Amino acid sequence: MTEILSVRNLSKTYPAQGKTLSVLNDINFEIQQGSTVSIVGPSGSGKTTLLGLCAGLDRASSGSVVLNGIKLDELNEDERARVRNQHVGFIFQNFQLLPTLTALENVMVPLELRGERNVKASALTLLEKVGLAARGHHYPSQLSGGEQQRVSLARAFSNSPKILFADEPTGNLDTETGQKVEKLLFELNRDAGTTLILVTHDLELASKTNRIIRLKGGAILNDSL
Ligand SMILES: Nc1ncnc2c1ncn2[C@@H]1O[C@H](COP(=O)(O)OP(=O)(O)OP(=O)(O)O)[C@@H](O)[C@H]1O
Ligand SMILES: [Mg+2]
């Protein structure tokens, strides 16, 4: 088994009113390629922060993250963006769709960044997968929360990522849509070998992954490995 992600002595602090707020404290784990992992824990325990650091969206205060053999700490902003575009899919807790682009255009962005051909057709196929082919011309503000979540999912799938980070991917969805999304995520893992790391409050969803990492107060309380 190969390691796709290695997190060593990772800490994150924020300055807060002259003091230092410790959000993550000495986090350590390794994740094997092709596995499925859930990160669970109470609100404010640092789950989103941890996901952002692992995906190279943000920089740690100390410690290291090695993603697919690349040391993220040694890269600048542009280099990290390139690594993300090449290897990483990310589904944000708050979607983060570009408001001035339609659903279809949002999905096209990563494909265009990669300089792919037939970008529009590929994006449409991805929207079809999440059941939104008919809504491609709508702007995010014209879509429901669940629909935006599914556009975000299609966008995250678009670069066939080696590793997909999903921050509460079913959190805003009704049971039926949630199950569809869940199915898509596990299919991607099974068919494309994409490593899946998801943050969830849904313990039933978490129990379907190979491993559960439990955070509390910015530290690992328990790792089922
Ligand atoms: N930019 C920031 N500046 C200061 N504090 C921050 C910042 N970002 C996050 N925090 C703090 O870090 C802590 C962890 O936040 P985080 O978003 O990682 O939690 P979470 O586990 O994802 O919670 P939830 O389940 O509510 O999404 C919170 O107390 C939050 O207020
Ligand atoms: Mg969060």
Kindly provide the name of the CATH class: Alpha Beta
What is the typical, i.e. mean, pLDDT?
94
Largest sheet properties = 6 strands, mixed
Radius of gyration: 17 Å
- Reported CATH architecture: 3-Layer(aba) Sandwich
Low-confidence stretches: none
Protein name: ABC transporter ATP-binding protein
Family: Belongs to the ABC transporter superfamily. Macrolide exporter (TC 3.A.1.122) family.
InterPro entries: AAA+_ATPase (IPR003593), ABC_transporter-like_ATP-bd (IPR003439), ABC_transporter-like_CS (IPR017871), MacB-like_ATP-bd (IPR017911), P-loop_NTPase (IPR027417)
Domain ABC transporter: 5-225
Structure description:
41% of the residues are buried. The chain is α/β, with parallel strands linked by helices and 225 residues long. A hairpin with a 2-residue loop joins strand 9 and strand 10. It starts with a strand and ends with a strand. The chain contains seven helices and ten strands. It has one domain (3-223): 3-Layer(aba) Sandwich (Rossmann fold). The strands form two sheets. Strands 6-7-8-3-9-10 form a six-stranded mixed sheet, with helices on both faces. A four-stranded antiparallel sheet has the order 2-1-4-5, with helices on one face. The model has no long low-confidence stretch (mean pLDDT 94). Bound molecules: adenosine-5'-triphosphate and magnesium ion (MG). Magnesium ion (MG) binds at residues 47-48, 93, 167.
